[in-house]
Design goal:
This protein is an alpha+beta fold. It is built from three helices and ten strands.
């Protein structure tokens, strides 16, 4: 597929046009990705108190849900985000991965992985914080590590 890029001025509205022979599932997914703001500029818009704060993706350690509220954890701060985990999972880059029913992990931010009984793992970060990886997701994580996707 041919890809073209045209730089425009800041005053013009950005748009993406897809010229395709057939509307496949992949094309529909791409369209949804672009139209639902999945095309990220490298940050996630979060809230702290009443302020809207853009948080760079590379400083996020993990995102977890507690009582239907999504919390974004960084080295020193915890923010809230409006989107649900399933929405974030679709929007975030490949190095973010669902690791449990209630958490998404930034694989690039993990310092160590520690196995626990029952097949679960603990992902630990530089600041001493951590989150658990459930059995359901451990195999997928290992595959990503083996394939060198991290």
């Amino acid at each position: 597929m041919k890809v073209s890029l045209k730089l425009i001025s800041d005053t013009e509205q950005e748009e993406a046009k897809l010229y395709v022979h057939e509307e496949t599932d992949n094309i529909k997914r791409l369209e949804r990705y672009i139209s639902e703001d999945g095309f990220y500029p490298g940050y996630l818009l979060c809230q702290r108190e009443k302020a809207q704060i853009p948080v760079k993706l590379d400083v996020i350690y993990y995102i977890e849900t507690i009582q239907e509220i999504q919390y974004v954890h960084t080295e020193k701060e915890v923010y809230k985000v409006k989107q649900r985990l399933y929405e974030l999972e679709r929007m975030l880059p490949y190095y973010f991965m669902r690791v449990s029913k209630s958490a998404i992990l930034n694989l690039n931010g993990v310092k160590t992985y520690k196995p626990f009984s029952g097949g679960i793992m603990l992902a630990e970060f530089e600041n001493g914080d951590g989150t658990y990886i459930s059995r359901k997701y451990v195999k997928e994580l290992r595959n990503k590590v083996r394939e060198g996707l991290l």
